[in-house]
Amino acid sequence: MTFHSSTCGLPRSGPCRIGFVFLLSLVLISCAPRQAAERAAPSPAASIERIFVATELDLRDLGRMFGKTRPDGLKFLHVDVSIPPTHKTGNIEWPEGPPDANTDFVITGTEVYKGADSMIGAMRRATPGRETMVFVHGYNNTFSDAVYRFAQMRADFAAQNPGVVFSWPSAGDPRGYAYDRDSVLYSRDGFQRVLTSLTRQPGERVFLLAHSMGSQLVMETLRQAALRGDRHLLDRISGVVLMSPDIDPDVFQRQAETIGQLPQPFMIFVSRQDKALSLAGLLTGRKPRLGRIDSPDQLEGVKGVRVIDFTDLGDGEGLNHSVAVTSPAAISVLKGLIDQAKRGTRAFEDYMVLGDGS
Questions:
Q1: pTM above the 0.70 mark?
Q2: In the chain, what are the domain boundaries?
Q3: Which of 261, 250, 242, 260 is nearest to 285 (CA)?
């Protein structure tokens, strides 16, 4: 199993000044070295997050997909991610030199399973619980990005329930925005098969956490299940969180209308300073994406949706595109809200604007 990065060449610029500036920024970003997960010896001072993964990627080559033919068929595995004792909340500590489990996120072990049932059986034995959190990554994510991000989230939120990453074939390159939008459509059937496998047995449920363009994959898959009349699957979804969703609000309303009664809770995490979604809006017709809405009026007619605005808790990290899981202040506030909700002392409001005093 190979974790690697790749290099690229410069594309030509266009005549439009805005387009040229945007294209130039993509070139500079895409030609920068891409960090990738690396193996290292374990450290007794580190903690291990066992990340289960369902993916359509070729396990022999988990680098960038840009310009490649999309692989076919689902694969199932787990990756043991070592979290260093020096880990800081919200960070992924990528190696700056030779990987060291005392200071860096590293891989200490992997195992590939024969199929979904084998992986699910191993997951149930390793982590008690019948509700599985399924994380769907966003645009411009490699396999390494997705696995390390989910490991960071599980560590920072002290997650105890079983968890699975669905790694769809993103180009892993900022120039691949259109490629990734097509990959989302390509991956709907595979994702639905994974969810069906995770909810086959009595009492099994899934909680969906999607980031950025991964939100489009979640919504399209739920819409597809509704059109197929698969209420068994829809009724087994215990909740949905769309974090910085890269979806046109009009499209989201149509998706929600087709799905009908949305799983509960259903939450959308937004930031009005999300610069990545600003660029996405430029690419898709200068219209604000769902992850940048600033009023509940923009979801008029959609029932059962709660919006949480993290704008004031952003720290600029990652273009404010993942504030809820990268900002230490946001993580602290969100953990407090979750604890209060579990105790029944405070429920999520339909539209909440969070600040340091929340």
A1: yes
A2: 37-353
A3: 250
